[in-house]
Design a protein that fits this description.
mainly alpha; single chain
Length: 264
C-alpha cells in the first residue's frame, strides 16, 4: 500500500481474519496476528488516537456544512500535540508489522477501495497539517479535505461516535464458532460464493448482483408451465426491481444463488 496508517492496517487484518474463517489451518495464525496488532496499538498513544479518529470520521454523519467542517477540524487538531516525525515513527511500526506478518499473502484485490481512499485522505489531512507552511501541498490538502468532507455529509450505515478497540482473541473465538456453526452445511459452490462476498468491494458486489440477476432471469423466463406462470412472473418482477444497496446486496446475491440451485 502507498500509505500505512491504522485504518489500512486494521482493514488488512480484518481481511486476513475473514479469509481464515473458511480455512481452519490458518485460523490460529490469524488470531495471533490480530493480537499482535492489538499489542502494538495498546503501547502507542498515537496509534490509539489514530484508531479513534479514523473510526469516528468513517462512521459520522453531519448534514450541516459548517458543523461538518468543524467536526473534521477538531479531530485533525488532536494530532497537534505530536510532531510529524513522532507520528511517522509509530507508522513505521505498522509498516514493519505488516511486512513481516501479512503483506506477503494479501493482494490489493482483497481491499475495500472506498475505505482505503477515505483512510488515505484522513492521513493526508493529518500529515499536511503538521508540516511547515512552506512545505504544505495545498492542492493535495484541499483534495483530501473535500473527500473527507463529502464522506461525513453522505448517508451511510451509521455507528455514531464509536470508540472501538481492535478485536481481542475472545471475541474472535466467539465469531469463528458462530460462523462455523452457521455455515457447516455449505457445499463447495456455497463456500466459493461466500469467499467472494467476504473479499469483494462494492464494485464487485454490484457486478455480481447483475450477473446473478441476468442468469436467474434467463432460467425463469425459459420455464413454460401454465400452472406456475403467476409465481414466475412475480419472481421475475421482484428480481428486476433489485438494485445495489450496501445493506441488502449480500442477501440478494445469496438469495439468487439459492434460487438458481433450486431451478437447475
Amino acid at each position: 500500500m502507498k500509505n500505512v496508517n491504522i485504518g489500512v492496517a486494521n482493514l488488512i487484518i480484518c481481511n486476513k481474519l475473514n479469509e481464515s474463517y473458511l480455512n481452519n489451518e490458518i485460523l490460529d495464525e490469524s488470531r495471533k496476528t490480530a493480537t499482535k496488532l492489538l499489542d502494538i496499538v495498546k503501547k502507542s498513544p498515537i496509534l490509539q488516537l489514530e484508531f479513534k479518529v479514523y473510526n469516528n470520521i468513517q462512521n459520522k454523519i453531519v448534514e450541516n456544512e459548517v458543523l461538518a467542517k468543524e467536526y473534521i477540524d477538531k479531530h485533525i487538531e488532536l494530532f497537534e500535540v505530536y510532531t510529524l516525525e513522532e507520528i511517522e515513527a509509530e507508522r513505521k511500526k505498522l509498516q514493519e508489522f505488516l511486512t513481516e506478518e501479512v503483506l506477503g499473502t494479501i493482494t490489493e484485490a482483497n481491499y475495500d477501495l472506498e475505505k482505503i481512499d477515505l483512510y488515505n485522505a484522513i492521513d493526508t489531512l493529518v500529515t499536511e497539517s503538521l508540516k511547515n507552511s512552506e512545505d504544505v501541498d495545498v492542492d493535495e490538502l484541499h483534495e483530501a479535505f473535500t473527500f473527507v468532507f463529502n464522506h461525513v455529509r453522505s448517508p451511510k450505515v451509521l455507528t455514531e461516535n464509536v470508540e472501538a478497540e481492535p478485536v481481542n482473541e475472545e471475541v474472535i473465538e466467539i465469531a469463528v464458532d458462530k460462523f462455523n456453526e452457521k455455515y457447516a452445511s455449505l457445499d463447495e459452490n456455497d463456500k466459493e460464493l461466500l469467499k467472494t462476498l467476504i473479499k469483494a468491494d462494492w464494485r464487485k458486489k454490484k457486478t455480481l448482483l447483475e450477473t446473478y440477476k441476468t442468469e436467474t432471469l434467463e432460467i425463469l423466463e425459459g420455464i413454460d408451465k401454465d400452472n406456475v406462470q403467476d409465481n414466475i412472473k412475480k419472481a421475475i418482477d421482484k428480481i428486476k426491481e433489485m438494485v445495489y444497496d450496501k445493506k441488502t446486496v449480500d442477501d440478494n446475491i445469496i438469495g439468487l444463488h439459492e434460487l438458481k440451485k433450486e431451478l437447475l
